[in-house]
Structures are given as C-alpha cells and as structure tokens.
C-alpha cells in the first residue's frame, strides 16, 4: 500500500503527497521493441488491447522510491508528479529531497486553492501571480514564528524547480515574469584555503537570511556540532553503562574514538574489523588500524560516497570483534536477510534490521530509508540521566565527531607549543583523521578549541581512560544482565 500523508476525515480534501516503493519503470514503444505488454489501467476488463512497453533507457528496471501528488478528488496531479518522476529517475534526486519537494509542492497547490488561483496563470498584477502569492503566504508564517526563513526558502526552491522544468521540457511560457533573477560575484576560500570568485544567482522570491555572528558555541561541519565537555564525556559513558545497551555503548565508543559520521558508524560491517589485535594484553592496543569506507569493495557508506580510510584504535576493533561473536549479536544477525557473514552489519536491532540502512541494501529491507532514528531516541534517555547532575546538558550523536576533533587537538597542541609541530601540520593531522576535504572546516575546530581551552581532554589520554573504564564496566554489565529476566515480546530494543 502506498504511504499517504495523514488527513483528517472531517477536513475538506487537499492536495497530498503519496510515497511509492519499488516502482517498475517502463515506456510505450514499437511492438518489435517490446519486452512486455501492458493493458490500459482505465479500460474495462477484456475490452482494450494491451500495448507494447520497454525499459526506460539509462534507468534501472525499478525505482526504489517515488513520490506522486494527488489532487483533492484523488486524481493524479500530472505536472507535479511528472516533475518529481523525472527529477528522481533522470536527475538523480535523492529520496529525502524528493520527499521534501513533494510535500512542498502539495503545500503550494493547497495555497493556490485557498487563494482561488490557477498555478499556470501569470496574468494580472504581481501580487496575484502564483509565485509571488505563495511567497506572501510564507512571509506570514515567518513573521508569526511558525516557520524559519531557511524552511520557507526550501519550499520556494521546490516550486521554482517545478516551474523551470515546465519551461524547459513542457514549453510553458508564462505571460509575465515568475520571478526576477539577479547575479552577483562573491569571494570564498576553496578547500585548499585559496581565494576564489564564484557567481551566485538569486531571485526576489527567496528570503534574505541575516548572517549569524559566530559566538563560538558550535562547530559547523555538516551541521552545528557542539563538542561535549570533558566532565560530560565521562557522565555520558556512565549513563550508557547504566542503561545497559551494548549496541548503543559501542556506537558511542566508535564515535568518540574515530570521529566517524553517524552514517559510516552505523553501516560498519563484520569485515570492517581487524581481528587478532587489541586485547587486554596487547602492548599495541592503542595502535590505529584503518577501515575502508565507500570504496568499491566496501559496503560501508560515507557522506557523498567519499572514499576514505578511517582509523580506529586496536582495542575498539577487539571489542567489536568480541561483540559480533556474542550470542546476542548472532541471534540478531540470524534474522537479517543478509547471509554473507563479511557483509553483515555490526549494529542490528533485535529484529535483524540495521539501525541505518545503506542505500545499496534498501531492497533487502522493504525499501526502508531508516537513518538512525532509534539511536536518536535512545540519546534522550542518556540526556535524562546526565541531567541529574547537569541540568543544562544536551547532545546529539553528531556531537561525538566534534568531541573527537577537539580532543585530538588537545592531544597535539603540546607539540605545536614546543615547536615540534606547526599549525599547518596540526591542521593536516586533524583534517586527515576527520577525512575532511575543506581546510576551512578543519580550521573551525582549531578556532573552537582556542575559544574553549579547558573543554577538551587529550585524545590519547581519554582513550586510555575510556578503554579501562569500558573493560571494568562491561564485566559489571554482564553480571547485571545475567540476573535480568528475559525481555518481553513487544518490548523496547535493549
């Protein structure tokens, strides 16, 4: 069954988006080119002859995720749905972007209905043209505080995308301008730190966002990341032991010792682990071993599919090796449709599903787009415990990356101050460990550290402390689990 947006039965019918999974892609063709024959969907049974169809060139046989928009009467809104179809199948629009665009376009059409406007009619004064009318409704939301400028700009970009598609592929010619574009040149630093000039095109539909003044409260690295203080790092680990969830504990340990993004952390596989290293008696248990990410022979995902090698301490490799050979993990893996041991996810729920489904595996898990929602929910439990001692504490999983970064700076800052390493070498070390392309992002970590010199703790010292703490508490945790009653059916994933 397609997933539809919720709608109160008492409300009047509205435009709404519908999600489709695993859609077969085809187009009409000549009989001699046919790979199948299709009966018209609107024909009476046995009344119409089937017509020939073939796969769409340069497209897969199936689309894992598509979105269409239904009109209030339940019929398909053709313009919006065809735009989304081509954006996904031909332009490669991601599932999340398509979901947002479908919702934005449904909202746009509902606003047109409310205003009594035809979305293709650009006659009359500017205030009554569909694009400007929609902007006015969004401005009201911003002024009331219901929506942010960034959110409303995204909605406008979705609408502009559809209109650009109409003008370039459907010969749509509005009688008056849909918006006014302006071009300006701006200077920026490229990923190597060199000054470059680029042209930026903007329109009079979008809302200008005032540039925020950085106050040193966060690091911008794929989001606003807030490093966890040295005191709170210990409290988070203690809270994880108190909650007694091995998967959640190990996810946090991996994040704090590697700086991995959540996407990479949660798509680690059995063959990511180096075996035979890092046990308690290994003199090299703090040595680093690489994990291949996003390479052709690796199923581990990375942001923008960037090939990289992430370094992980030997003792963490050992703990993951012990975990995947535990009865707990084996029971979960037995429920997974992945049968090749080397490709099995390390982090699975009790039902055998990954906490984050890699794009290449979506077909194995009913085309799920799960991206770590269970872990985000679990973090709330950690926050509740830490708040017993620190009422203002808060964190997100991505903050583990920032915490690793500032801890790593603390680990090397002494060498820089003693002249054994210069600032460029320190930045290069940090950039490589975090697998960053843009040196400007790396510099934000150093700037944050300089503004908060007492926040971090040396990464090497932290890992020694963490490893000792984990080994001690894991023993206690196993003793507690041995005395627990078995989980009840339908309970939470602990």
From TrEMBL:
GO terms for molecular function: DNA binding. Transmembrane segments: none annotated. Gene3D superfamilies: Intergrase catalytic core. Residues 484-494 have a biased composition (Pro residues). SUPFAM superfamilies: DNA breaking-rejoining enzymes. One of its GO terms (biological process) is DNA recombination. InterPro entries: DNA_brk_join_enz, Integrase-like_cat_sf. Keywords: DNA recombination. Residues 473-494 are annotated as: Disordered. This is Phage integrase protein. The lineage of its organism: Bacteria, Pseudomonadati, Pseudomonadota, Gammaproteobacteria, Pseudomonadales. It comes from Pseudomonas amygdali pv. lachrymans (Pseudomonas syringae pv. lachrymans).
């Amino acid at each position: 069954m397609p997933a539809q947006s919720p709608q109160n039965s008492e409300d009047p019918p509205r435009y709404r988006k519908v999600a489709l999974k695993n859609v077969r892609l085809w187009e009409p063709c000549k009989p001699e080119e046919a790979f199948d024959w299709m009966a018209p969907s609107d024909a009476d049974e046995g009344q119409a002859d089937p017509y020939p169809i073939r796969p769409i060139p340069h497209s897969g046989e199936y689309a894992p995720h598509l979105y269409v928009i239904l009109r209030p009467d339940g019929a398909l809104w053709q313009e919006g749905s065809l735009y989304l179809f081509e954006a996904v199948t031909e332009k490669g629009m991601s599932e999340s972007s398509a979901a947002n665009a479908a919702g934005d376009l449904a909202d746009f059409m509902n606003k047109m209905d409310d205003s009594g406007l035809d979305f293709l009619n650009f006659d009359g004064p500017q205030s009554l043209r569909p694009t400007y009318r929609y902007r006015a409704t969004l401005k009201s939301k911003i002024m009331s505080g219901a929506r942010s400028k960034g959110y409303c700009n995204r909605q406008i970009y979705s609408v502009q995308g559809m209109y650009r598609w109409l003008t370039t592929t459907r010969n749509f010619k509005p009688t008056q301008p849909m918006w006014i574009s302006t071009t300006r040149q701006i200077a920026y630093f490229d990923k190597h730190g060199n000054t470059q000039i680029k042209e930026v095109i903007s329109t009079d539909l979008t809302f200008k966002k005032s540039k925020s003044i950085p106050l040193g409260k966060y690091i911008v690295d794929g989001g606003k990341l807030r490093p966890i203080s040295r005191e709170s790092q210990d409290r988070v680990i203690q809270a994880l032991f108190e909650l007694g969830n091995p998967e959640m504990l190990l996810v946090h340990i991996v994040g704090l010792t590697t700086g991995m993004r959540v996407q990479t952390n949660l798509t680690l596989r059995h063959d990511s682990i180096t075996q035979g290293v890092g046990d308690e008696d290994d003199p090299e248990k703090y040595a680093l071993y690489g994990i291949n990410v996003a390479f052709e022979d690796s199923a581990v995902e990375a942001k923008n599919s960037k090939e990289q090698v992430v370094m992980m301490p030997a003792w963490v490799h050992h703990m993951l090796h012990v975990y995947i050979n535990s009865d707990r993990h084996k029971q979960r893996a037995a429920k997974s449709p992945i049968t090749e041991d080397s490709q099995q996810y390390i982090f699975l729920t009790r039902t055998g599903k990954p906490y984050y489904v890699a794009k290449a595996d979506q077909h194995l898990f009913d085309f799920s787009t799960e991206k770590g929602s269970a872990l985000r929910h679990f973090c709330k439990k950690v926050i509740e415990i830490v708040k017993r001692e620190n009422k203002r504490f808060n964190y997100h999983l991505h903050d583990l990356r920032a915490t690793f970064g500032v801890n790593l700076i603390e680990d090397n800052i002494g060498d820089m101050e003693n002249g054994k390493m210069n600032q460029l070498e320190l930045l290069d070390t940090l950039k490589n460990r975090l697998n960053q392309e843009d040196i400007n992002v790396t510099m934000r970590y150093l700037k944050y550290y300089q503004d908060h010199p007492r926040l971090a703790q040396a990464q090497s010292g932290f890992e020694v402390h963490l490893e000792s703490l984990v080994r001690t508490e894991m023993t206690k945790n196993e003793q507690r689990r041995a005395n627990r009653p078995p989980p009840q059916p339908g309970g939470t994933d602990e």
